[in-house]
Specification:
single chain, D-Maltodextrin-Binding Protein, domain 2, 4-stranded antiparallel sheet, 16 strands, 23% strand
Length: 321
C-alpha cells in the first residue's frame, strides 16, 4: 500500500552527514536513505531538480473525480466506515519522509530532518524537524508520531494499516524530537515503511473540556495536521482546500517549489459522461484521459476550437519493450 501525495515528491540515503552522539558504532544519521546505491541529492540540496523553487504562488485549480458513492461523509481517511473527502491525504497529512520522483526508491526527510538506521538494520530512528508545526501552531513531537502509529494500528482504524505496518515490532519515544521504530526482521526496506507513517495531532477530535470523539467516529471534525493546506469550505459534491500561509515546511528542500496554488478544489460527478460534459463546459481545469473514444469524439466543440480548452498528448517511454 502506498500513501499518495498531490504534486508529491519522496526520498532517502545512509551515507553521510552527522554522527549521532548516542548512536551505536557505525550508525550514521543522514538526510536521506537509498535502498539501492547512493542518494542523488546531497545533504545541502535546496530543492528537487523537477521542482521550480521560483514558481509563483497564487491562483486556484479545479480538479474532478467520478464519485460512485454519492459524495463523502467524513474528513477521516483512515477509518473503515464511510467515504472520505478527496484530497485529504495528499494535501493535509504529512509523513516522516517522502521519496523523490527522479530516482529509485530513495527517501528524504519531511517531518523528520534526519534518519538513523541501525548497522544491523533492525531499527530506525527519526529526528523531527525543530520547525515542524501542526495547523493549530503546536509543535510536532515524537509523542505525536507514537500516538499516530498506535491509532492507525488499532481497531479504530482500517485494518489495512495494521497489515501495512505488520513488520514494525514497536515504536518508542527517545526524546521529544526523536522516535525509534523496531523491526521484526532486519531490513533496509522497513525504514521506508516506517517513514511513510501519516502523522496527525493528538488533539484531533478533542472537544471542549477535553472530551474526545473516538477515532472511528470522527466525521466532519477538521483534522489537525502539518500539511500545506487546510479545509476552507465543503459541500455535498465538492471540497476546497486553502494553502496555509503559515505552512511550516514551505522552505524545506523536499517542499520548495511545490504546492503553489492558493486553492485546490475537487468536484465530484456522478458518472464519466457528466464529468466529460463538465469538462467541455469549463467547470474544472485539468483532466487525464486514457480512453481513445472519449479523446477523439467527446473532447470537441467551440471551447476546444477557440483555445479555451487545450488537448495535449503526453508521450511516455515507460514500459517500452
Amino acid at each position: 500500500m502506498r500513501f499518495p501525495s498531490f504534486f508529491r515528491a519522496i526520498g532517502f540515503t545512509v551515507a553521510a552527514s552527522l554522527m549521532a552522539t548516542s548512536a551505536p558504532e557505525n550508525a550514521f544519521a543522514a538526510h536521506a536513505l537509498a535502498q539501492y546505491g547512493q542518494a542523488k541529492y546531497p545533504a545541502n540540496f535546496t530543492h528537487f531538480a523537477y521542482a521550480n523553487p521560483n514558481a509563483p504562488k497564487g491562483g486556484s485549480v479545479n480538479l474532478s473525480l467520478v464519485d460512485l458513492k454519492n459524495g463523502y461523509d467524513k474528513f477521516n481517511p483512515f477509518s473503515l466506515r464511510g467515504n472520505a473527502a478527496p484530497g485529504l491525504q495528499e494535501l493535509m497529512f504529512e509523513t516522516l519522509t517522502i521519496n523523490s520522483l527522479d530516482e529509485a526508491n530513495t527517501q528524504y526527510g519531511l517531518l523528520a530532518e534526519d534518519i538513523l538506521l541501525a548497522p544491523d538494520e533492525t531499527w530506525v530512528e527519526f529526528r523531527i524537524n525543530r520547525a515542524a508545526r501542526f495547523s493549530n501552531g503546536d509543535r510536532v513531537t515524537a509523542g505525536d508520531v507514537l500516538r499516530s502509529y498506535a491509532t492507525l494500528t488499532s481497531k479504530d482504524a482500517s485494518p489495512r494499516f495494521k497489515s501495512y505496518f505488520a513488520e514494525i515490532k514497536g515504536v518508542r519515544v527517545i526524546d521529544y524530537r526523536t522516535v525509534r521504530f523496531d523491526f521484526v526482521r532486519p531490513g533496509r526496506d522497513l525504514s521506508f515503511v516506517a517513514g511513510s507513517l501519516p502523522v496527525f495531532s493528538r488533539k484531533w477530535g478533542q472537544g471542549r473540556g477535553g472530551r474526545r470523539t473516538p477515532f472511528d467516529k470522527l466525521a466532519f471534525q477538521r483534522p489537525i495536521t502539518s500539511g500545506p493546506y487546510t479545509i476552507e469550505r465543503y459541500g455535498p459534491l465538492s471540497i476546497t482546500y486553502r494553502r496555509n500561509p503559515g505552512y511550516w515546511g514551505r522552505n524545506i528542500p523536499a517542499r520548495r517549489g511545490g504546492y503553489n496554488f492558493n486553492r485546490v478544489t475537487y468536484k465530484l460527478y456522478r458518472d464519466q459522461d457528466a464529468q466529460v460534459a463538465a469538462m467541455r463546459a469549463g467547470d474544472f481545469d485539468f483532466f487525464n484521459e486514457t480512453r481513445m473514444r472519449y479523446w477523439c469524439c467527446q473532447f470537441i466543440g467551440q471551447r476546444f476550437d477557440n483555445g479555451d480548452l487545450i488537448k495535449e498528448k503526453v508521450r511516455t517511454t515507460r514500459w517500452r519493450r
